Amino acid sequence: MKKDSVRGWKDVFTFTLTQTLKSKTYIVTLIIMIVSAMISMPLMNIFMKGNTAEEPEKSAVEKVYFYNMTLCRNIDFESEFPESYRHIVFEDTVGDIKELETKLQEEEVNAVILTLMEDENYCYIQFMRSPDGDVTNYELQLLGQYIQNAYTKAKVELLGLTEEQIKFFDTSVVSSAGIVDTKSDLMIEDTSISEGEYWFIYGMMFVVLMVCILASTTVATSIVQEKSSKVIEYLLTSVRPLAIIVGKVFAMLVTVMIQLIALVLAGFVSTKIGGLITGDSTNVITRYMTPEMLASLNFGNIVLGLVTAGAGMVLYATLAGLCGATASRMEDSSESLTLLSMTSLVGFYIGFGAASTLMTSGENPFVTFALIFPISSAFLLPAALLVGKASTWIALIAIVVLFLSIVLMFKFVAKVYEGLILHNGARLKMKDVFAMAKGTKSKKKEENA
Amino acid sequence: MLEVKNLTKQYGEKVVVDDLSFSISEPGVYALLGTNGAGKTTSIRMILGMLAKNGGEVLWNGKPFSAAELNVGYLAEERGLYPKYSLLDQLLYFASLKKVPKKVAMDRIKYWAERLQVEEYIFPPKTVKGKAAKANRADQLSKGNQQKVQLMAALISEPEFLILDEPLSGLDPVNTDLFKGIIREEIAKNKYLIMSSHQMPTIEEFCTDITIMNRGQAVLQGNLNDIKKSYGRVNLFVKSDSEIASYIQKFGIQIVEKMPSEYHLKVTDERQAREFLASMMQDNEPLVKFELREPSLHEIFVEKVGDDNEER
Fold first, then answer.
1. Of A229, A299, B57, B264, which sits most exposed with the smallest number of CB within 10 A?
2. Prediction pTM value
3. Three-state secondary-structure class, residue A174
4. CA-CA distances (angstroms) from residue A40 to A46, A271, A287, B72, B265?
5. Residue A234 and residue B68: Cβ atoms within 8 Å?
């Protein structure tokens, strides 16, 4: 790959970038993405507020008629209640429930009937309320939680357990596997990820996959369009084929980065708006992120993640350029992308497998392989870095491997692209492309060039 | 000076360009002729460096030819413009690839747009009926106008070497004259041109030297006048108010074509033609036309590649 091969790539880059940024499709997509991101957080906050409504300042429940059908007789509800529930009057009841129901419907619309039952397996907390009162089901759910706490405490007291004994009983059990080191102590290290981290990795991998496919498809379509419209012949009098593909790939990378940055900024603004609407300073993302995840979310990891994702996009977009060059008609373009789709899916599934392995068994050689292997590292590594499951060294090795793969891909593309780009007629298969690289392209296919 | 030496292109077993050599030592138009599939476009692509060669070399002033380094203009046979992009953007892009500064490119685009009468497409009015007008795109142009824009793209860098592959195909007579005028101007500027065309009168009008290709090989090469002279003036066109068949028979002259009141004959040499004329003049035959001339390029072309192609 000589310097001459890429001379003029900046002109291709500038033109492709300008035309893409000016294109209606891009502008409309960007606007939709920004608007979606802007409204997502406020909507999520509103919906989540609907589902997890805040506690009322003062509960609408005024009185509780309590049918206690358990062995616990002295349940101290008040000690477990927050201030907003402490005004509630509890009245132990043993009478006819039908009479009470009539009373609730006609007179005490803000009173509720509570039945507490237990058997060998379960404890049941059942509420009945008037349809005409101010009491909501949500309030009763909250009230149920406090009653459950008070009931549990009463059971513990009944059994004669101390606070310390309860604490000891409640201690979490963490299982882990370690390697016996004969020279030192038993090494125990928990490297597995939580379910939340797993879904975070999965979500991020999916986003990177989508972005990669979007950018790569755009590059391939652009190449096929230049071939089918014969513009390529003009371009080749000024620049080498490799300069065309390099210019296009980097232009697409920039357009995708612009989209991503716009998305992140819109998300940031959206979070702030969401907070203003709900009056909640904590955003939805931080609510679901573990402290470990937040600790790994530093500048260095973000940069490494972006570099990896960017390099992955370059790798996939170059492959897409190669795939696109095998077709000379627009109708063949989607078929020509089979190799790209397969490779990206294989990469994604390797990453997916590694994420699952991380959750179940923690770090192992397969995970390390997936973090370094170029077709999967582009998807897995950015997310793994952000949850603290990839060290800086692994990231640097993966980036070096990715860059080497890109150079090799460029070299291969430079070798075959010249023949491919002037090819007309039926779509070339990959075996023809490899034969071309070896200089043994089939006669029939060559004749079409 | 352009030298093409032993240019060869092979696809598998098939040789599509076989040992092609020619040179253009002086400014002017060199013609590459041949039937469809003769290897002209492949040769042009190899000269321009778009296509890898299996053998041979292309030199410009003794050094390897590089289209990127030399200022080359190319009007391809298969015309191409981005269908959905603004025409002005495309022309500026082609200029930037040729390292033409934007301001200079803009001036040249204005000049050529006016010259080729495509200003309204390249610089559309900013408003139409009070609304902002959209920039024109290639897919909104007629074929002829697209060809004009493509010629602009080829000329925008003021190339010193120009390759025109079928430049006049698909043009109406008015635009044909417009293109011919521009080609004449380029020749007058002492530029080197290679032209490929199936329109033999056009080639005869512009070209000094030719190569006729058939199945990848050069079957005839040289200066067009010298080639014609080598054939001799054996084409005789005779028109008379009376029937002259008996004279033709008497001299044993070959009839190429008999038209309503004219014969196209082939004499063995000029002496036979003179004797034929003298005989008719002696008998006071009412001759209207007696023209002895060299074969046309069309005839030479058909002679060189016609039979071979019929066999295919």
1. A299
2. 0.73
3. coil
4. 10, 8, 15, 54, 88
5. no
**Which among B40, B72, B51 is positioned nearest to B203, based on CA atoms?**
B40
Taking CA atoms, A410 is separated from A225, A312, A413, A447, in Å, by: 21, 14, 5, 25
Q: What's the CA gap between B16 and B38, in Å, rounded?
A: 8
B156 touches A: beta carbon within 8 Å: no
Nearest to B155 by CA among A16, A226, A14, A234: A234
Domain boundaries defined on chain A: 3-48+192-448, 63-162
**% of chain B at pLDDT higher than 70:** 95
B217-223 and B207-214 beta bridge pairing:
antiparallel
Residue whose entry in the numeric block shows the structure tokens 């790798």:
A315
User: For chain B, what is the total number of helices (H) and then of strands (E)?
Assistant: 12, 16
Q: How many CA atoms within 13 Å lie on the side-chain side of A78?
A: 6
Using CA atoms, how far apart are residues A414 and A434, in angstroms rounded to an integer?
Answer: 13
Q: Which residue of B has its CA nearest to A418?
A: B51
Tokens coding A422: 């002037």
- The answer to whether residue B74 neighbours chain A at the CB level (below 8 Å) is yes
| Interface test with chain B among A223, A233, A424, by most B beta carbons within 10 Å | A233
Question: B74 φ, ψ to 5°?
Answer: -135, 125
| Strand A63-69 with A89-92, pairing | parallel
Total residues belonging to chain B: 312
Residue B156's pLDDT band, with cuts at 50, 70 and 90, is very high
Query: CA-CA distance, A80 to A147, in Å (whole number)?
Result: 8
Mean pLDDT of A340-364: 89
Distance between CA atoms of residues B145 and B302, nearest Å: 32
- Predicted complex ipTM: 0.81
Give the confidence band of A443 by pLDDT, cuts at 50, 70, 90: very low
What domains, with CATH codes, occur in chain B?
2-228 (3.40.50.300), 233-293 (3.30.70.1150)
In degrees and rounded to multiples of 5, residue A372 shows phi and psi of: -100, -30
Q: Which among A154, A159, A190 is positioned nearest to A172, based on CA atoms? A: A190
Q: Which residues contact A80 (CB under 8 A, 6 or more apart)?
A: A146, A147, A149, A150, A153
A:227-266 residues touching chain B, CB 8 A cutoff: 229-240
Sign of the Cα pseudo-torsion (B93, B95, B98, B99, in order) = negative
Instruction: Name residue, tokens 């955003």.
Output: A283
Q: What's the CA gap between A7 and B68, in Å, rounded? A: 9
Task: Identify the DSSP state of B199.
Answer: -
Residues 6+ apart with CB under 8 A from B213: B20, B32, B33, B34, B38, B39, B40, B43, B219
* Encoded amino acid at A114, one letter: L
Which residue has 């507490």 as its token pair?
A: A116
Q: Which two tokens stand for residue A324?
A: 């696109």
The structure tokens 């497409």 sit at: B121
Model pLDDT for residues A133-148, shown as the tens digit of each residue = 888 888 888 888 888 8
**Residue A47 corresponds to which tokens in the numbers above?**
């919906």
Q: Chain-wide mean pLDDT for chain B?
A: 88
In A398-427, the residues whose Cβ lies within 8 Å of chain B are 418-419, 422
How many whole angstroms separate alpha carbon B296 and alpha carbon B312? 24
Say which residue the tokens 């080359």 belong to: B72
The H-assigned helical ranges of B6-142 are 40-47, 87-97, 102-115, 119-122
